Protein backbone atom coordinates (compact mmCIF):
# COMPACT_ATOMS: atom_id res chain seq x y z
CA UNK A 1 0.00 0.00 0.00
CA UNK A 2 1.17 3.54 -0.74
CA UNK A 3 0.73 6.24 1.88
CA UNK A 4 1.15 8.91 -0.77
CA UNK A 5 -2.27 8.12 -2.23
CA UNK A 6 -4.08 4.81 -2.24
CA UNK A 7 -5.99 3.75 -5.35
CA UNK A 8 -9.53 2.51 -4.59
CA UNK A 9 -11.66 0.43 -6.94
CA UNK A 10 -15.35 1.33 -6.61
CA UNK A 11 -18.15 -1.26 -6.89
CA UNK A 12 -19.36 0.13 -10.21
CA UNK A 13 -15.93 -0.23 -11.80
CA UNK A 14 -14.80 3.35 -11.19
CA UNK A 15 -11.58 4.43 -9.51
CA UNK A 16 -10.87 7.00 -6.83
CA UNK A 17 -8.08 7.80 -4.38
CA UNK A 18 -7.74 8.11 -0.63
CA UNK A 19 -5.05 8.37 2.07
CA UNK A 20 -4.47 5.61 4.59
CA UNK A 21 -3.83 6.25 8.25
CA UNK A 22 -1.40 4.38 10.49
CA UNK A 23 -4.05 1.68 11.04
CA UNK A 24 -4.24 0.91 7.31
CA UNK A 25 -7.74 2.40 7.01
CA UNK A 26 -8.76 5.60 5.21
CA UNK A 27 -7.66 8.58 7.29
CA UNK A 28 -10.85 10.20 8.59
CA UNK A 29 -9.83 13.85 8.21
CA UNK A 30 -8.27 13.51 4.76
CA UNK A 31 -11.17 11.36 3.58
CA UNK A 32 -13.66 14.04 4.62
CA UNK A 33 -11.84 16.57 2.45
CA UNK A 34 -11.48 14.15 -0.48
CA UNK A 35 -15.15 13.12 -0.31
CA UNK A 36 -16.10 16.78 -0.66
CA UNK A 37 -13.99 17.12 -3.79
CA UNK A 38 -15.19 13.88 -5.36
CA UNK A 39 -18.47 15.73 -5.89
CA UNK A 40 -16.98 19.02 -7.11
CA UNK A 41 -13.69 18.14 -8.80
CA UNK A 42 -12.39 15.95 -11.59
CA UNK A 43 -10.96 12.52 -10.68
CA UNK A 44 -7.43 13.63 -11.55
CA UNK A 45 -7.79 16.54 -9.13
CA UNK A 46 -8.89 14.15 -6.38
CA UNK A 47 -5.87 11.98 -7.15
CA UNK A 48 -3.53 15.00 -6.93
CA UNK A 49 -5.09 16.03 -3.60
CA UNK A 50 -4.75 12.50 -2.22
CA UNK A 51 -1.09 12.33 -3.27
CA UNK A 52 -0.38 15.70 -1.65
CA UNK A 53 -2.12 14.81 1.60
CA UNK A 54 -0.29 11.48 1.57
CA UNK A 55 2.98 13.42 1.47
CA UNK A 56 1.80 15.46 4.46
CA UNK A 57 0.94 12.29 6.37
CA UNK A 58 4.40 10.80 5.73
CA UNK A 59 6.00 14.05 6.94
CA UNK A 60 3.87 14.07 10.10
CA UNK A 61 4.75 10.48 10.91
CA UNK A 62 8.46 11.12 10.41
CA UNK A 63 8.34 14.15 12.71
CA UNK A 64 5.97 12.59 15.28
CA UNK A 65 3.18 15.13 14.85
CA UNK A 66 -0.58 15.11 14.38
CA UNK A 67 -2.32 16.91 11.53
CA UNK A 68 -4.53 18.95 13.89
CA UNK A 69 -1.72 20.04 16.25
CA UNK A 70 0.70 21.80 13.96
CA UNK A 71 1.31 25.46 13.15
CA UNK A 72 2.54 27.54 10.26
CA UNK A 73 6.18 26.93 11.17
CA UNK A 74 5.57 23.21 10.82
CA UNK A 75 4.13 23.76 7.36
CA UNK A 76 7.21 25.80 6.46
CA UNK A 77 9.30 22.77 7.46
CA UNK A 78 7.01 20.63 5.34
CA UNK A 79 7.89 22.81 2.30
CA UNK A 80 11.59 22.12 2.96
CA UNK A 81 10.81 18.42 3.33
CA UNK A 82 9.01 18.42 -0.02
CA UNK A 83 12.02 20.01 -1.68
CA UNK A 84 14.82 17.94 -0.14
CA UNK A 85 13.24 14.96 1.63
CA UNK A 86 14.51 16.13 5.04
CA UNK A 87 13.50 18.77 7.57
CA UNK A 88 15.65 21.93 8.00
CA UNK A 89 17.12 20.67 11.28
CA UNK A 90 18.80 17.72 9.51
CA UNK A 91 22.38 18.68 8.67
CA UNK A 92 23.55 17.71 5.19
CA UNK A 93 27.18 16.63 5.72
CA UNK A 94 27.76 16.17 1.98
CA UNK A 95 26.61 19.69 1.21
CA UNK A 96 25.03 20.99 -1.98
CA UNK A 97 21.95 18.79 -1.77
CA UNK A 98 19.91 18.89 -4.95
CA UNK A 99 16.12 19.32 -4.66
CA UNK A 100 14.17 16.10 -5.01
CA UNK A 101 11.11 17.93 -6.38
CA UNK A 102 10.77 20.93 -8.66
CA UNK A 103 9.07 24.13 -7.56
CA UNK A 104 5.99 23.38 -9.66
CA UNK A 105 5.47 20.09 -7.78
CA UNK A 106 6.11 21.73 -4.41
CA UNK A 107 3.61 24.44 -5.27
CA UNK A 108 0.92 21.92 -6.22
CA UNK A 109 1.48 19.87 -3.07
CA UNK A 110 1.36 22.93 -0.85
CA UNK A 111 -1.76 24.33 -2.53
CA UNK A 112 -3.60 21.08 -1.76
CA UNK A 113 -2.45 21.08 1.88
CA UNK A 114 -3.50 24.72 2.34
CA UNK A 115 -6.91 23.93 0.82
CA UNK A 116 -7.26 20.98 3.22
CA UNK A 117 -6.55 23.07 6.32
CA UNK A 118 -8.84 25.88 5.22
CA UNK A 119 -11.62 23.37 4.52
CA UNK A 120 -11.23 21.72 7.94
CA UNK A 121 -11.15 25.12 9.68
CA UNK A 122 -14.42 26.10 7.98
CA UNK A 123 -15.90 22.82 9.20
CA UNK A 124 -14.73 23.62 12.74
CA UNK A 125 -12.60 20.47 12.83
CA UNK A 126 -9.04 21.70 12.50
CA UNK A 127 -6.62 24.39 13.69
CA UNK A 128 -7.41 27.92 12.56
CA UNK A 129 -4.14 28.52 10.76
CA UNK A 130 -3.67 31.86 9.04
CA UNK A 131 -2.59 30.72 5.59
CA UNK A 132 -3.57 33.79 3.59
CA UNK A 133 -3.02 37.47 4.19
CA UNK A 134 -4.80 40.54 2.86
CA UNK A 135 -2.92 42.55 0.26
CA UNK A 136 -3.62 45.02 -2.51
CA UNK A 137 -3.05 43.71 -5.99
CA UNK A 138 -0.64 45.64 -8.18
CA UNK A 139 -0.20 44.86 -11.86
CA UNK A 140 3.16 46.09 -13.10
CA UNK A 141 4.28 47.13 -16.52
CA UNK A 142 5.72 43.68 -17.18
CA UNK A 143 2.29 42.09 -17.18
CA UNK A 144 0.66 42.45 -20.61
CA UNK A 145 -3.02 42.52 -19.71
CA UNK A 146 -5.10 44.74 -17.42
CA UNK A 147 -8.82 44.23 -17.14
CA UNK A 148 -11.27 47.01 -17.96
CA UNK A 149 -12.07 47.52 -14.25
CA UNK A 150 -8.47 47.13 -13.09
CA UNK A 151 -8.45 50.66 -11.63
CA UNK A 152 -11.23 49.55 -9.27
CA UNK A 153 -10.26 45.97 -8.49
CA UNK A 154 -6.63 46.87 -7.76
CA UNK A 155 -7.83 48.99 -4.80
CA UNK A 156 -9.72 46.11 -3.23
CA UNK A 157 -8.05 43.79 -0.74
CA UNK A 158 -6.84 40.55 -2.33
CA UNK A 159 -6.04 37.23 -0.66
CA UNK A 160 -2.35 36.38 -0.96
CA UNK A 161 -0.83 33.10 0.27
CA UNK A 162 1.44 33.28 3.30
CA UNK A 163 3.79 30.72 1.73
CA UNK A 164 5.28 32.46 -1.29
CA UNK A 165 7.08 29.74 -3.21
CA UNK A 166 9.68 30.43 -5.85
CA UNK A 167 8.15 31.00 -9.24
CA UNK A 168 8.83 28.80 -12.24
CA UNK A 169 9.50 30.13 -15.71
CA UNK A 170 6.59 29.29 -17.95
CA UNK A 171 7.83 27.27 -20.88
CA UNK A 172 6.38 27.79 -24.29
CA UNK A 173 3.84 25.08 -25.09
CA UNK A 174 5.04 22.65 -27.76
CA UNK A 175 3.46 22.90 -31.19
CA UNK A 176 3.50 20.93 -34.42
CA UNK A 177 3.92 22.36 -37.89
CA UNK A 178 1.02 21.98 -40.33
CA UNK A 179 3.08 19.41 -42.25
CA UNK A 180 3.58 17.34 -39.09
CA UNK A 181 -0.14 17.42 -38.25
CA UNK A 182 -0.97 16.17 -41.73
CA UNK A 183 1.59 13.38 -41.39
CA UNK A 184 -0.05 12.24 -38.14
CA UNK A 185 -3.50 12.18 -39.74
CA UNK A 186 -2.23 10.23 -42.75
CA UNK A 187 -0.46 7.77 -40.46
CA UNK A 188 -3.85 6.96 -38.95
CA UNK A 189 -5.81 6.59 -42.19
CA UNK A 190 -5.58 7.73 -45.80
CA UNK A 191 -8.04 7.89 -48.68
CA UNK A 192 -7.54 5.30 -51.42
CA UNK A 193 -8.77 7.23 -54.47
CA UNK A 194 -8.65 4.16 -56.71
CA UNK A 195 -10.80 1.97 -54.46
CA UNK A 196 -12.78 4.93 -53.00
CA UNK A 197 -12.27 3.70 -49.42
CA UNK A 198 -10.33 4.72 -46.33
CA UNK A 199 -7.28 2.63 -45.47
CA UNK A 200 -6.37 2.42 -41.81
CA UNK A 201 -8.34 3.60 -38.79
CA UNK A 202 -10.93 6.25 -39.63
CA UNK A 203 -11.70 6.54 -35.91
CA UNK A 204 -8.12 7.52 -35.07
CA UNK A 205 -7.93 9.99 -37.94
CA UNK A 206 -11.19 11.60 -36.81
CA UNK A 207 -9.94 11.85 -33.23
CA UNK A 208 -6.66 13.57 -34.11
CA UNK A 209 -8.34 15.75 -36.75
CA UNK A 210 -10.91 16.81 -34.16
CA UNK A 211 -8.20 17.71 -31.64
CA UNK A 212 -6.30 19.70 -34.25
CA UNK A 213 -9.30 21.56 -35.67
CA UNK A 214 -11.18 22.36 -32.44
CA UNK A 215 -8.48 22.54 -29.77
CA UNK A 216 -10.57 20.46 -27.36
CA UNK A 217 -8.80 18.51 -24.66
CA UNK A 218 -8.54 14.76 -25.06
CA UNK A 219 -10.93 14.19 -22.15
CA UNK A 220 -13.47 16.52 -23.75
CA UNK A 221 -13.24 14.64 -27.05
CA UNK A 222 -13.77 11.27 -25.35
CA UNK A 223 -16.88 12.65 -23.61
CA UNK A 224 -18.62 13.47 -26.90
CA UNK A 225 -21.71 11.63 -28.19
CA UNK A 226 -22.43 11.27 -31.91
CA UNK A 227 -25.29 13.76 -31.52
CA UNK A 228 -22.81 16.36 -30.22
CA UNK A 229 -21.43 16.44 -33.75
CA UNK A 230 -24.16 18.63 -35.29
CA UNK A 231 -24.39 18.49 -39.09
CA UNK A 232 -24.52 21.76 -40.99
CA UNK A 233 -27.39 20.87 -43.37
CA UNK A 234 -26.55 23.92 -45.48
CA UNK A 235 -25.21 25.91 -42.53
CA UNK A 236 -21.91 25.57 -40.66
CA UNK A 237 -21.48 22.30 -38.73
CA UNK A 238 -20.34 22.46 -35.14
CA UNK A 239 -19.34 20.32 -32.20
CA UNK A 240 -21.12 20.83 -28.90
CA UNK A 241 -18.72 20.16 -26.04
CA UNK A 242 -21.03 18.77 -23.37
CA UNK A 243 -20.18 18.02 -19.71
CA UNK A 244 -21.07 14.46 -18.74
CA UNK A 245 -19.70 11.55 -16.71
CA UNK A 246 -17.44 9.20 -18.65
CA UNK A 247 -16.92 5.54 -17.64
CA UNK A 248 -13.14 6.09 -17.65
CA UNK A 249 -13.12 9.27 -15.54
CA UNK A 250 -12.83 11.72 -18.43
CA UNK A 251 -14.52 15.09 -18.00
CA UNK A 252 -15.11 18.48 -19.58
CA UNK A 253 -12.94 20.87 -17.60
CA UNK A 254 -14.97 23.27 -15.49
CA UNK A 255 -18.21 21.52 -16.49
CA UNK A 256 -18.85 24.29 -19.02
CA UNK A 257 -20.38 23.52 -22.40
CA UNK A 258 -19.34 25.39 -25.54
CA UNK A 259 -20.04 25.29 -29.26
CA UNK A 260 -17.16 25.00 -31.71
CA UNK A 261 -17.74 25.46 -35.43
CA UNK A 262 -15.87 23.03 -37.66
CA UNK A 263 -15.18 22.55 -41.36
CA UNK A 264 -17.23 20.60 -43.85
CA UNK A 265 -14.35 18.16 -44.28
CA UNK A 266 -14.39 17.29 -40.58
CA UNK A 267 -18.16 16.78 -40.75
CA UNK A 268 -17.67 14.48 -43.75
CA UNK A 269 -14.99 12.52 -41.90
CA UNK A 270 -17.39 12.03 -38.99
CA UNK A 271 -19.98 10.72 -41.43
CA UNK A 272 -17.49 8.23 -42.86
CA UNK A 273 -16.61 7.07 -39.36
CA UNK A 274 -20.28 6.70 -38.41
CA UNK A 275 -20.84 4.46 -41.43
CA UNK A 276 -17.78 2.44 -40.44
CA UNK A 277 -19.22 1.90 -36.95
CA UNK A 278 -22.55 0.83 -38.44
CA UNK A 279 -20.85 -1.57 -40.88
CA UNK A 280 -19.15 -3.20 -37.89
CA UNK A 281 -22.52 -3.77 -36.19
CA UNK A 282 -22.64 -0.73 -33.94
CA UNK A 283 -26.22 0.20 -34.83
CA UNK A 284 -27.42 -3.24 -33.70
CA UNK A 285 -25.23 -3.39 -30.59
CA UNK A 286 -26.24 0.05 -29.26
CA UNK A 287 -29.89 1.02 -28.71
CA UNK A 288 -29.44 4.69 -29.62
CA UNK A 289 -26.18 5.30 -31.48
CA UNK A 290 -26.73 9.07 -31.52
CA UNK A 291 -26.72 9.13 -27.71
CA UNK A 292 -23.69 6.86 -27.46
CA UNK A 293 -20.00 7.65 -27.18
CA UNK A 294 -18.43 9.08 -30.33
CA UNK A 295 -15.11 7.30 -29.82
CA UNK A 296 -15.50 3.60 -29.03
CA UNK A 297 -13.63 0.33 -29.37
CA UNK A 298 -13.88 -0.87 -32.98
CA UNK A 299 -11.19 -3.55 -33.07
CA UNK A 300 -10.90 -4.84 -29.51
CA UNK A 301 -13.22 -6.15 -26.81
CA UNK A 302 -15.56 -5.01 -25.50
CA UNK A 303 -16.69 -3.78 -28.90
CA UNK A 304 -18.39 -0.35 -29.02
CA UNK A 305 -17.50 0.37 -25.38
CA UNK A 306 -16.29 3.89 -24.60
CA UNK A 307 -12.68 4.39 -25.66
CA UNK A 308 -10.06 4.53 -22.92
CA UNK A 309 -7.39 7.27 -22.90
CA UNK A 310 -4.80 4.47 -22.68
CA UNK A 311 -5.96 3.30 -26.12
CA UNK A 312 -5.25 6.77 -27.50
CA UNK A 313 -1.73 6.72 -26.12
CA UNK A 314 -1.18 3.26 -27.61
CA UNK A 315 -2.09 4.83 -30.94
CA UNK A 316 0.32 7.70 -30.33
CA UNK A 317 3.15 5.22 -29.79
CA UNK A 318 2.33 3.43 -33.04
CA UNK A 319 2.23 6.72 -34.94
CA UNK A 320 5.62 7.69 -33.51
CA UNK A 321 7.14 4.39 -34.60
CA UNK A 322 5.68 4.78 -38.09
CA UNK A 323 6.75 8.40 -38.60
CA UNK A 324 10.09 8.27 -36.79
CA UNK A 325 11.92 11.62 -36.84
CA UNK A 326 9.22 13.23 -38.99
CA UNK A 327 7.48 14.26 -35.75
CA UNK A 328 8.95 15.24 -32.34
CA UNK A 329 9.66 12.36 -29.97
CA UNK A 330 7.69 14.05 -27.18
CA UNK A 331 4.44 14.36 -29.15
CA UNK A 332 1.24 13.84 -27.14
CA UNK A 333 -2.41 14.51 -28.07
CA UNK A 334 -2.30 17.76 -26.05
CA UNK A 335 0.19 19.18 -28.55
CA UNK A 336 -2.68 19.37 -31.04
CA UNK A 337 -4.54 21.70 -28.66
CA UNK A 338 -1.53 24.02 -28.48
CA UNK A 339 -1.13 23.80 -32.24
CA UNK A 340 -4.77 24.78 -32.74
CA UNK A 341 -4.42 27.96 -30.67
CA UNK A 342 -1.14 28.79 -32.37
CA UNK A 343 -2.66 28.36 -35.83
CA UNK A 344 -5.55 30.67 -34.98
CA UNK A 345 -3.24 33.40 -33.67
CA UNK A 346 -0.85 33.06 -36.60
CA UNK A 347 -3.84 33.54 -38.90
CA UNK A 348 -4.86 36.77 -37.18
CA UNK A 349 -7.65 35.57 -34.88
CA UNK A 350 -8.26 37.92 -31.91
CA UNK A 351 -7.42 36.68 -28.43
CA UNK A 352 -11.04 36.68 -27.11
CA UNK A 353 -12.06 34.35 -29.95
CA UNK A 354 -9.17 31.99 -29.16
CA UNK A 355 -10.17 32.11 -25.50
CA UNK A 356 -13.72 30.99 -26.36
CA UNK A 357 -12.64 28.10 -28.56
CA UNK A 358 -10.06 26.89 -26.06
CA UNK A 359 -12.57 27.03 -23.19
CA UNK A 360 -10.39 29.27 -21.01
CA UNK A 361 -12.31 30.89 -18.17
CA UNK A 362 -10.34 34.12 -18.55
CA UNK A 363 -8.55 35.74 -21.48
CA UNK A 364 -5.52 36.22 -19.23
CA UNK A 365 -4.95 32.46 -19.35
CA UNK A 366 -4.86 32.65 -23.14
CA UNK A 367 -2.41 35.55 -23.03
CA UNK A 368 -0.14 33.85 -20.51
CA UNK A 369 -0.04 30.64 -22.54
CA UNK A 370 0.04 31.91 -26.11
CA UNK A 371 0.93 35.61 -25.93
CA UNK A 372 4.39 34.89 -27.35
CA UNK A 373 3.10 33.35 -30.58
CA UNK A 374 2.77 36.45 -32.76
CA UNK A 375 6.16 37.72 -31.59
CA UNK A 376 8.05 34.60 -32.69
CA UNK A 377 9.74 35.41 -35.99
CA UNK A 378 10.87 31.82 -36.52
CA UNK A 379 7.31 30.56 -36.16
CA UNK A 380 6.01 33.20 -38.54
CA UNK A 381 8.53 32.07 -41.11
CA UNK A 382 6.97 28.60 -41.26
CA UNK A 383 4.64 28.49 -44.23
CA UNK A 384 1.23 26.90 -44.15
CA UNK A 385 -0.58 28.35 -41.14
CA UNK A 386 -3.17 30.15 -43.26
CA UNK A 387 -3.92 27.05 -45.32
CA UNK A 388 -3.92 24.92 -42.15
CA UNK A 389 -6.94 26.81 -40.81
CA UNK A 390 -8.61 27.00 -44.22
CA UNK A 391 -12.21 25.87 -43.93
CA UNK A 392 -12.46 26.47 -40.20
CA UNK A 393 -15.31 28.71 -39.12
CA UNK A 394 -13.99 30.26 -35.94
CA UNK A 395 -16.81 32.76 -35.41
CA UNK A 396 -17.51 33.27 -31.70
CA UNK A 397 -20.90 32.13 -30.42
CA UNK A 398 -22.64 32.05 -27.08
CA UNK A 399 -22.27 28.77 -25.13
UniProtKB/TrEMBL annotation:
<dbReference type="Pfam" id="PF00589">
    <property type="entry name" value="Phage_integrase"/>
</dbReference>
<dbReference type="InterPro" id="IPR002104">
    <property type="entry name" value="Integrase_catalytic"/>
</dbReference>
<keyword id="KW-0238">DNA-binding</keyword>
<keyword id="KW-0233">DNA recombination</keyword>
<dbReference type="InterPro" id="IPR050090">
    <property type="entry name" value="Tyrosine_recombinase_XerCD"/>
</dbReference>
<keyword id="KW-0229">DNA integration</keyword>
<protein>
    <submittedName>
        <fullName>Tyrosine-type recombinase/integrase</fullName>
    </submittedName>
</protein>
<dbReference type="InterPro" id="IPR010998">
    <property type="entry name" value="Integrase_recombinase_N"/>
</dbReference>
<dbReference type="InterPro" id="IPR013762">
    <property type="entry name" value="Integrase-like_cat_sf"/>
</dbReference>
<dbReference type="Pfam" id="PF02899">
    <property type="entry name" value="Phage_int_SAM_1"/>
</dbReference>
<comment type="similarity">
    <text>Belongs to the 'phage' integrase family.</text>
</comment>
<dbReference type="InterPro" id="IPR011010">
    <property type="entry name" value="DNA_brk_join_enz"/>
</dbReference>
<feature type="domain" description="Tyr recombinase">
    <location>
        <begin position="171"/>
        <end position="383"/>
    </location>
</feature>
<dbReference type="InterPro" id="IPR004107">
    <property type="entry name" value="Integrase_SAM-like_N"/>
</dbReference>
